[in-house]
Amino acid sequence: MSVKVEEVRQFWNANPCNSDMSYEADRRRYFEEITAKRYNGRDWHIPTTAQFEKYAGKDVLEIGCGIGTDGFEFAKRGAHYVGIDLTENSVALARERFELFNVKGTFKVVNAEAGLPFESDSFDHIYSFGVIHHSPKTEAIVDEMYRVLRPGGTVTVMLYNRSSINYYLEIMFLRRVFRLLLYPQFMPNLLSKLTGFDEWKLKGHRDLMLKNPNPTKEQWISMNTDGPYCPLAKVYDKYEAYELFRRFRDVRQEVWEFNTEHWSLIGKIIPLMVARTIGNLWGWHRMIYAAK
Ligand SMILES: C[S@@+](CC[C@H](N)C(=O)[O-])C[C@H]1O[C@@H](n2cnc3c(N)ncnc32)[C@H](O)[C@@H]1O
User: Fold this and answer.
1) Do residue 32 and residue 154 come from a single domain?
2) What integer pLDDT is reported at residue 3 of this predicted model?
3) Is 272 contained in some domain?
4) Nearest 10 degrees: CA dihedral of 41, 46, 51, 55?
5) Residue 143: partners with Cβ closer than 8 Å, 6 or more residues away
6) I need a labelling partner for 80 at 20 to 30 A (CA). Which of 40, 72, 162, 211 fits?
7) Are residues 109 and 239 part of one domain?
8) Cα-to-chain-centroid distance, residue 258
9) How far does residue 239's CA lie from ligand 1's centre (Å)?
10) What's the predicted TM-score (pTM) here?
């Protein structure tokens, strides 16, 4: 059964991306803490790949801006920034962030796969990090990106990488084998204590396994990326990504991010340089850079 964009909207509206990375009561400190954790943690590579400073004075559109963490970095450095997202709650948080720090930006709640509400050839750069693989009509969003980009304009897009440790080893092998351990009711709690993994996620996986013991491949991938209740996530290898961006020119790809948090004790002892090298070989984030 194919996933409807409404299910995607409901999920992300209830769980604005990274909004739980801080519990600071002071709203400025709340957003600052999320930014610091994002760029000093497992997503340390974003400033390198997004190149925020390169787009000062340019018209930048972000598709799936979430709570505006990366968008804020573009806008703060002088980009004319427009952020769109499927969900009202994300857009409200992104707006709040910009207003608190007095940074200019425009926001709209938009389902990008239903068409972007902008003239053709109106942006110099489009940025989209971890978004279009969550949408049922990914191809339609890429077509719209092409339409609203000016000739010579560029895109930077992050897609989940099929050719990764996350996909082949973790999602398709280890999680399938170890999910059987979750049958006894006490196991989510015990496993969480032993491994440090989130208990609510383990409980969620147990509940889903009891409700739907034989998920389809699409369902299995989706429930093993952004938490058990994420309705849709897709993965792309190099060739699938080239195919998706076939209308663009100068398409270049890189992979980044080995998430050590998924590896319990191993993740804690592995040297940073090794983790980063693994990330550049079989990481979870496939970065696509291309031009119109
Ligand atoms: C994993 S979050 C990433 C958010 C942000 N880019 C970040 O890195 O923090 C995915 C976001 O994509 C948005 N999204 C999913 N499908 C979308 C669509 N069809 N149109 C616009 N936004 C969409 C969701 O609402 C959610 O905010």
Assistant:
1) yes
2) 94
3) yes
4) -110
5) 247
6) 40
7) yes
8) 14
9) 23
10) 0.95
Atom of ligand 1 nearest to the CA of 5: 19
Q: Are residues 129 and 171 in the same domain?
A: no
Same structural domain, 146 and 173: no
Element (H, E) at 221: helix 217-223
Tally Cβ neighbours within 10 Å of residue 18: 17
pLDDT of residue 264: 75
Distance from residue 184's CA to the centre of ligand 1 (Å) = 35
Whether residues 212 and 115 share a domain: the answer is no
**What pLDDT score does 118 carry?**
98
- pLDDT means per 10 residues, the chain with 292 residues, are 92 96 97 97 94 98 98 98 98 98 98 98 98 98 98 98 94 89 91 86 90 92 94 98 98 93 80 90 97 98
Q: How many domains does the chain have?
A: 2
**Burial of 130 (C-beta count, 10 Å sphere; 0-12/13-18/19+):** buried
In a domain, 228, yes or no: no
**Dist. CA 97 → ligand 1 center (Å):** 17
Determine if ligand 1 sits within 6 Å of the CB of residue 287.
no
Question: Would you state the pLDDT for residue 1?
Answer: 56
Here the tokens at position 93 are: 């948080």
- The CATH number that applies at residue 48 is 3.40.50.150
22 found inside a domain? yes
